[in-house]
UniProtKB/TrEMBL annotation, chain A:
Domain (ABC transporter): residue spans on this chain: 6-238
Entry-linked InterPro entries: AAA+_ATPase (IPR003593), ABC_SmlMolc_Importer (IPR050093), ABC_transporter-like_ATP-bd (IPR003439), ABC_transporter-like_CS (IPR017871), ABC_transpr_FbpC (IPR015853), Mo/tungstate-bd_C_term_dom (IPR008995), P-loop_NTPase (IPR027417), Transp-assoc_OB_typ2 (IPR013611)
Xref: PROSITE patterns: ABC_TRANSPORTER_1 (PS00211), ABC_TRANSPORTER_2 (PS50893)
GO function terms (MF aspect): ATP binding
The keyword Translocase appears for this protein: no
Keyword Hydrolase carried by entry: no
Organism of origin: Uliginosibacterium aquaticum
Keywords: ATP-binding, Cell membrane, Ion transport, Iron, Iron transport, Membrane, Nucleotide-binding, Transport
Name of the protein: ABC transporter ATP-binding protein
CDD domains: ABC_Carb_Solutes_like (cd03259)
From TrEMBL, chain B:
Gene source species: Uliginosibacterium aquaticum
Protein name, entry field: Amino acid ABC transporter permease
Cross-referenced Gene3D superfamilies: MetI-like
Domain ABC transmembrane type-1: 21-210
Places the protein is found: Cell inner membrane; Cell membrane
NADP among keywords: no
Transmembrane segments: 20-45, 66-88, 191-212
RNA-binding recorded as keyword: no
PROSITE patterns referenced in this protein's UniProt entry, alphabetically: ABC_TM1 (PS50928)
Membrane topology: Multi-pass membrane protein
Keyword annotations: Cell membrane, Membrane, Transmembrane, Transmembrane helix, Transport
Family of the protein in this entry: Belongs to the binding-protein-dependent transport system permease family. HisMQ subfamily.
Superkingdom of this protein's organism: Bacteria
Length: 352, 221
């Protein structure tokens, strides 16, 4: 594996006396797209600003292209870092044309080289016909792409994207996040995206760090986060699901109301007593609708999603679980329906 | 009472009045350009974060804004020759005084203009590799200036009206020229009426310009 383009180690950041990031670290391979995902106030934007050079570190180290650019007593100025950034509000220069915005960071190049690079970037983001327009004449999605082209123009090895799609409607957001991914991959530029929207993270990132209270709770790809969440926070934050109680029968079996599950019970769960209570995470795709099943649950709520309906089902014990069912199975609230378990990855946590 | 007025003297007085008007306009133009440049430097000094530089600039602005312009004109005219040992002439003295005085007002306008540009614009420029001063020059000042053009122009017609104060040191501006002509032909009232019409026409044209610019800037923002 090639050397990482960015390394952060044991970062500590504070606003005034309030420490918002502590002991955070990760690595990013060249060309990889990572995402810091977390609820507002978890410190993700602060980390991004520290990498860009807009915040000073209280502790820890940031290495970019094998060079120390930030620590408690080193602070390379943002303009000397060579890291591109796309801002939440785009921060395009309103007094300059699209082409001038993109060429803004290319002052060191000779004019023909600069113009060639601007044309190349316009082509890459699909805005060649808008070159002479001004930012206020463009749609939100177009402005977004100009901001990306401007950040990519000076050939940075890393681009930071701060909630880049938050000003767009949801349809646009999904389309553009895939588009931006393609553009970044075509340019071969590594990127870090910050967002609170997991769909954005799933659509764009190769790897995702879920952040909470200034720390990374888990660093993994989307599949791992969803199916093997490291802790309850990740389980709650990523995807939907319900927690039900289970009893550990032996180290390989957990029994819940709906049946027995084969599972490797985490060690911390069961020292001492052989039978103990655990919390089991059931995802909506773990519960399958099956009319022939003897297991029955009552429809408590339903949410129509188009191709599927997300049912909230009440079990005889009163516990609730979620089930994602193809939408031609249209049941009414209060009706009992047959279900069965189809759990491939059993996720258990110590009983809270 | 108006039947006693005789406007036939106006054509006779026109050459002298135009000469006065030319000086008023020259004074306005030079003081505006010089004042905006000096004022922008003062604003940058105040926003630079440098403690003493900022304080010095603030002190300058506060002093200029708390002294009546007429007094400044007189002081400058009488004090500078005492300091340098030679008179500098009414017109030169007026131009320097107005530039220094107006700079204080323009600097407050430019300061507000600079502060109205979102912080993100500087960050965006830094992230592309510009230094702080480069981003000031290429990103912040052009926008601040553009946004503030209407306010700067409004200040300019205050400046234009104030040029009439140079009569105090005997410089011949529009008002003084009209007064002189009035005395010469014994038609003071007519001359005052005529000259106020000129002041009105110029200020009205300027205010139309301000209105037009406000509209254009509102579209861009």
């Amino acid at each position: 594996m090639s050397a990482p383009v960015l390394q952060t180690r044991d970062l500590r950041l504070a606003y005034g006396r309030h420490e918002v990031v502590r002991g955070l670290g990760f690595e990013l391979a060249p060309g990889a797209i990572a995402c810091l995902l977390g609820p507002s106030g978890c410190g993700k934007t602060t980390v991004l600003r520290a990498i860009a050079g807009f915040e000073r570190l209280l502790g820890g180290e940031i290495h970019f292209e094998a060079r120390l650019i930030g620590s408690a007593d080193t602070h390379l100025a943002p303009e000397a870092r060579g890291i591109g950034m796309v801002f939440q509000d785009y921060a395009l220069f309103p007094h300059l044309s699209v082409a001038a915005n993109i060429g803004f960071g290319l002052g060191k190049l000779a004019r023909p080289a600069r113009e060639a690079r601007v044309a190349e970037m316009l082509e890459l983001v699909g805005l060649a016909s808008e070159a002479q327009k001004f930012p206020h004449e463009l749609s939100g999605g177009q402005q977004q792409r100009v901001a990306l082209a401007r950040a990519l123009a000076p050939h940075p090895a890393l681009v930071l994207l701060d909630e880049p799609f938050s000003n767009l409607d949801s349809e646009m957001r999904e389309r553009l996040s895939l588009e931006v991914r393609d553009i970044l991959k075509a340019a071969g530029t590594a990127a870090i995206l910050v967002t609170h929207d997991q769909h954005e993270a799933f659509a764009m990132a190769d790897e995702i760090g879920v952040m909470h209270e200034g720390r990374i709770q888990q660093w993994a790809d989307a599949w791992q986060l969803y199916h093997r969440p490291a802790n309850r926070f990740v389980a709650d934050f990523v995807g939907q699901g319900a927690i039900v109680q289970g009893v550990v029968r032996d180290p390989a079996t957990v029994e819940i109301e709906l049946g027995r599950l084969s599972s490797n019970v985490p060690v911390e769960c069961c020292h001492g007593s052989r039978e103990c209570v655990v919390d089991v995470l059931l995802r909506p795709d773990d519960i399958v609708h099956d009319d022939s099943s003897p297991l029955q649950a009552i429809v408590a709520r339903k949410a129509f999603k188009g191709a599927e309906i997300l049912y909230t089902l009440r079990l005889p014990s009163g516990a609730e679980v979620l089930s994602l069912v193809p939408s031609h199975h249209n049941h009414t609230i209060g009706q009992p329906i047959g279900i069965r378990l189809d759990v491939e990855q059993v996720v258990t946590f110590p009983h809270a | 009472m108006f039947s006693t007025l005789d406007f036939s003297v106006i054509p006779l007085a026109l050459p002298a009045i135009f000469k006065g008007l030319a000086f008023s306009l020259e004074l306005t133009l030079i003081a505006m350009i010089g004042g905006v440049i000096l004022g922008t430097l003062l604003a940058l000094a105040r926003l630079s974060g440098g403690k003493w530089l900022g304080r010095a600039a603030k002190f300058y602005v506060d002093i200029m804004r708390s002294i009546p312009l007429l007094m400044m004109i007189l002081w400058f005219f009488f004090l500078i020759p005492l300091l340098t040992g030679q008179p500098i002439g009414q017109e030169k003295s007026a131009i320097i005084t107005f530039t220094l005085f107006q700079a204080a007002f323009y600097s407050e306008i430019m300061r507000a203009g600079i502060q109205s540009i979102p912080r993100g614009q500087v960050n965006a420029a830094l992230a592309i590799g510009m230094t702080y001063w480069q981003s000031m020059g290429h990103v912040i000042l052009p926008q601040a200036f553009r946004n503030m053009v209407p306010v700067l122009l409004t200040q300019t017609f205050v400046l234009f009206q104030d040029t009439s104060l140079v009569y105090a040191i005997g410089a011949t501006d529009l008002l003084k020229a009209a007064e002189n002509a009035g005395m010469l032909y014994g038609r003071t009232v007519e001359m005052y009426l005529f000259v106020s019409l000129i002041y009105f026409a110029i200020c009205f044209a300027l205010s139309m310009l301000v209105k037009y610019m406000n509209k254009r800037i509102a579209i861009i923002r």
